[in-house]
Amino acid sequence: MSYDCAIIGGGPAGLNAALVLGRARRSVALFDNSQPRNAVTHASHGFITRDGVTPAEFRRIAYEEVLRYPSVERLPWEVTEIRRTDNGFAVATAAGKPFEARKLLIATGLREVFPDIPGLRECYGTSLFNCPYCDGWELRDQPLIVVSESSGVFHMAKLLYTWSKDLVICTNGHAVLDADQIQLLKSRNIEVVEQAVAKFIGHEGKLRQVEFADGTRIERTGGFVTPEWKPKAAFQESLGYEVNELGGIATNEWGKSTVPGVYAAGDAAYVMPSQLIYAAAGGSKAAIGINMELTEEEFA
């Protein structure tokens, strides 16, 4: 089948783009294999009218709204290959059925690569998180730990001081803070530990203690761990789009990539900050850009 636009990814960016394009009476193939990155999260925050919504409920409401528009079709398959054609793009899926589209929107989001620390996965999404804007309020005034191998841990420490004054900063065996930064943190009674974390100790997802490489332990009830962010999109080789300094797909203000007909939105484009409201807004802008381009072509 042929569509005006193929959207790869059913997160907030892809869903909001499908909504806008559906309302513009554009035919849309929305490819969504139901593997959202935030599935482990118990609640999502910072999105007005949906603060505290579970990821599953967010998707349920979104699909209820999006699929009201008859020109939008959800296709529950993983996209395995995309190639350019004379009329746009050919999209191949794991189901083997080919699809064609005049325009392409990549909204596949990110994947997280966490340090290999025992106990992290058991606590992640319940008492360990990665975004203070998403979950800082829920951990306010608690004894927290921040684990990061990046120099950005200094900014994270200052940021989290708003939510809790009881902070321990751990660089997990990496020397990423200079002497002045360490001194400034210590002046605020923020402890800095540069040795590696041996394990997180908790029960039913609730952190209780953190053990370090030398065997010492500290009591903590929550914290933040910084992952390495990698785009899920794996189509750069076949499509040839440029990437930005964070590894996302480089786009203009309307989500248009450096390849004609290819757009990107959400975390797949700007990488950070990774929040629902940013991604949804990016999807809306990209959809408007796609519709404008289709309109101009039809009147050429």
From TrEMBL:
GO molecular function, one term: oxidoreductase activity
UniProt key word RNA-binding: no
The keyword Nucleotide-binding belongs to this UniProt entry's keyword annotation: no
Pfam families hit by this protein: Pyr_redox_2 (PF07992)
InterPro entries from the UniProt entry: FAD/NAD-bd_sf, FAD/NAD-binding_dom, Ferredoxin-NADP_redctase_2
Domain of life: Bacteria
Residues making up the signal peptide according to the UniProt record: none
Subunit structure: Homodimer.
Name of the protein described by the UniProt record: NAD(P)/FAD-dependent oxidoreductase
Origin species: Cohnella xylanilytica
